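Weekly structure sync, notes
Attendees: PL (lead), two postdocs, one rotation student
Agenda item 3: pending single-chain targets
PL asked that the sequence for the first pending target be pasted directly into the notes so everyone works from the same version. It is reproduced below exactly as submitted, 267 residues in total.
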Amino acid sequence: MKNSNLYKKILVVVGAFFIVGLPSLQAQELYVYSEPASVMPARSIIIKQAFQQMEGVNAQQNYNTQLEFSLQKKWMAHIGTNYKAADFYTQYRFYSSDALHEHTRFAGYFKAVASGNNPSEQAILLDGQQKLIGAGIIATKLQHKWASSLTMGWLYRYTGNTNYTKNAVQYSWSNGLLLYPVTYKNYMQTNINFYVELLGQQSIQNKAHFLDIAPSVQFIFNSQAKLNFGYRLPVWDTMQRNSSRSFYISLDYLFFNALPKFKMAKK
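Predicted structure, written out during the meeting:
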């Protein structure tokens, strides 16, 4: 009952925030906890270092280093490690409708994590603590620099307590607002973005589920360096998790035109 009341209050606050804020504020779609359907610039490379302080029954620190790259404007991939496991992510944008100050995009994604860890908990973890695969669809809408994105996907884990589910549905709803600058003058300006993301998971074999909220703030320098701060906490949780709250910080740097041109072979 307590979780249900908290869930309703947060949804009211989030809803009011976006209803009031949409007419006057601007946004980006470089989400902190999820990926949009808009891929990286073609032929670019991103180097990213992240730190996560996990809180709960099993408090721990998690470090992650990633290399992200895009050979074409519709395709990108990530490879990374938390120094105990390795992960791979790839995304392909299959639909795009672009207009002045707005666009609608859809993408499909696939993720795999190779890990020897075997934590005993119901949740299927995406941060390198379990061996798993996952795939899904992302839909992103940008309207006058306000961005909203929906993700729906399936997860299957190979490791973990056999009494717990191995299949789950994961979903997210991410929204972002550009707080500064009010007016763009050049690409050298520092951007300050604010995000609110809802991140959920539903077990297929049983009724266990969770829904987390993750507010975050983002600083972008010279259109290349990005600094993120976020905090994730549960809103609605009936799933056994060793760590249900976490503080997140990451820094990444984008290298434009770092890769050679890639041309598809003509038939």
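Discussion points:
- Residues 9-27 have pLDDT under 50 and may be disordered.
- The domain at 2-255 is CATH 2.40.160.40 (Porin).
Action: rotation student to compare against the earlier draft before next sync.
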